[in-house]
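REQUEST ID: PR-0412
SUBMITTED BY: lab tech R.K.
PRIORITY: routine
TASK: structure prediction, single protein chain
INPUT:
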Amino acid sequence: MVLGMSIATFTVVHVVISLIAIAAGAVACARMLAGRTLDAWNSMFLLFTVLTTLTGFLFPITAFTPAIGVGIVSSVALAIALLALYAGRLAGPWRWVYVASALFAFYLNVFVLVVQSFQKIAFLNKFAPTGSEPPFAVVQGIVLLGFILLGFLALRRFRPA
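STATUS: complete
OUTPUT:
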């Protein structure tokens, strides 16, 4: 049991939170690419990404796993993004610090989505049953290159008032 829920129920809650974070992150990223100011979508992205990370730590894990490592890295990225947004107010170098750290936290969510998709979706799992086969690496490479491009474009276009 986790927070009074069975592991199965808690897993569903965690997945729903993660999917909301990813959807809100996509909208927030699109707004940055369009050079628009941050709004409720960005707040929703940050809130649900923090919740995704926190709920991930609540699973009953007895040893260090790659998921714990991703959670730690995501926590650091989110702390930096929140610092840049709320303490730095996106002024001067805080703008690029925010864009880089927020997009990195978004990338980590999508990275985990790809991992979980290859593990849990039968159609994808048959192409990479252990997660070390070329189709998995190709998809993760495309995701990484896509986020590098998004980061470059967001850094150039996002200029908050």
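NOTES: Helices lie at 7-33, 40-57, 66-87, 94-120, 122-125, 134-157.
REVIEWED BY: pending
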